[in-house]
Each structure stands twice: as C-alpha cells, then as structure tokens.
Amino acid sequence: MGVILEYLLNNWPTLTIILIVGVTCFIISRKFTKWDDRHSRKHEDLEKGFSDLSDNITHTLSRLEVIEKDLIILKSVLAMKYKNFKETFSLKFSPRRLNENGEKLFKDIKGAEFLDKNKEFLFSQIDALKPKTALDVENAANIACLSNTDNDIFNGLKNFVYNSPTYMLEDAENVKRPYDLDMNDICFVLSLPLRDMYLAAHSEILQE
Predict the structure, then answer these.
(1) In 3-state terms, what secondary structure has residue 177?
(2) 126 Cβ contact partners less than 8 Å away, ≥ 6 residues apart
(3) Distance CA 98, CA 121 (A)
(4) DSSP sequence for 131-196
(5) What are the pLDDT digits (tens) for 61-116?
(6) What whole-number distance in Å separates Cα of residue 120 and Cα of residue 118?
(7) Contact in structure between 167 and 178 (CB atoms under 8 Å)
C-alpha cells in the first residue's frame, strides 16, 4: 500500500493529465453521440418530409391527369352536339353503322389495323367504364378513344388529320364536298367497329 501511495505522490502530475484527458475524451464522446442522435433524427424527419411531399405531388399529378381527361371528354361531347358527324359518317340502323363516308375514312386511316394493334389497351379503357348495355359500350368506345388521344398510339392518326385538314366526302347526292377533319371524327369512326369488337368478346352484355 505504501508503495502505491509513493508512486501516486511521485507521479501525480502525469496521472492528473491522463485523468483530465480521459474525462475530456469521455465528455466529447458523449456530446458527439448526442449530436449524432439528433442529426440522425433530423435526417429521418427530412427524409419522411420529402417522402410525404413526393406522395402529395404524385397524387396531385394523378388528379390533374384525371381532370385533363374529363376536360377532353367534355370538349368532345360539346363538339358532338354542335358538329353533326354522326350523320356524316354513319347511318342509324339497328345498331348504328358506318356509312360509305365512314367506311372510306376508316379504310384511309387503316382503322382495322389500328384497332387490332391496340385492342387490349382500348378494351381496358372500356372495362374501366363498366358498361352494362350495348349502348353503354357504344358510348364507352367513343370515350375510350377521345380521352386517350394524348397517348402515343394516336400519333399516326393525328398526323393523318394534320396532313388532311380538308377531306373530300360525298353528300347524299353523290357530290363531293370538302370536310374539315379533326380527332373527334377519327374517334367516332373508330368507336363503332371498336364497339362491335368489344361486344363480340363480351356476350354477357345485354344487346336486346
């Protein structure tokens, strides 16, 4: 015991320095640990904030897409009211069918090829509207085309309209007259064959 006390008395400056350094290191370590914990929590809070913001932006963009489609449909419905293309491109048989002008346009735009190529996508758009009758399918087929004209599958048809702004049609007296085509006309002409394709694949839908 005396030897230990003698050693401590002889070396107390060194031991004091060691003790002070040790305590200082311990205090710094504790403070750094607390700072690291706070930093980690702040980082997690920031990540959660950015994640929530990203989700909100995604939701808002999704809603804007829905609104955009609704506006396209509304615009097209108004166009149908004031532009008499039903009588221009179809006849009211039972059900409504393309007339000679409609058949000509359908052939010129390679409508059959377009519908065959994009059948799965267009069917899914009609499915989403849950049609219950043949008339529902007819309206849904038109909407399926009208509301998706911003889709790349319609680019070729839009180029056709762009390059054929004035289309020659025959009237009831077989006189050719100019007609200004737009995408409403294209979608209507596509919609009747699309309706028939969908009904053929869904025998459960009421047709009588």
Answers:
(1) strand
(2) 137, 140, 141, 144, 194, 198
(3) 23
(4) --BHHHHHHHHHHHHHTTTTSGGGHHHHHHHHH-SEEEEE-TTS-EEEEE--HHHHHHHHHHHHHH
(5) 666 666 766 676 666 666 555 556 666 777 776 788 999 899 999 999 999 999 99
(6) 6
(7) yes
- For 49, the token pair is 């904030």
Burial of 195 per CB tally in 10 Å (0-12, 13-18, 19+): buried
pLDDT in tens, 19-60: 555 556 556 666 556 555 565 666 566 666 656 666 667 766
Q: What secondary structure letter does DSSP report for 62? A: H
Residue labelled with tokens 């030897």: 3
Residue among 133, 152, 153, 131 nearest 143 (CA): 131
Mean pLDDT along residues 3-17: 50
pTM of the model: 0.64
Token pair 């309209």 in the structure block, residue: 161
Q: What is the residue whose two structure tokens read 């403070």?
A: 31
In sequence order, the 6+-apart residues with CB closer than 8 A to the CB of 119 are 197
Q: Which 3 state secondary structure label does DSSP give 97?
A: strand
Distance, CA of 183 to CA of 155 (rounded, Å): 11
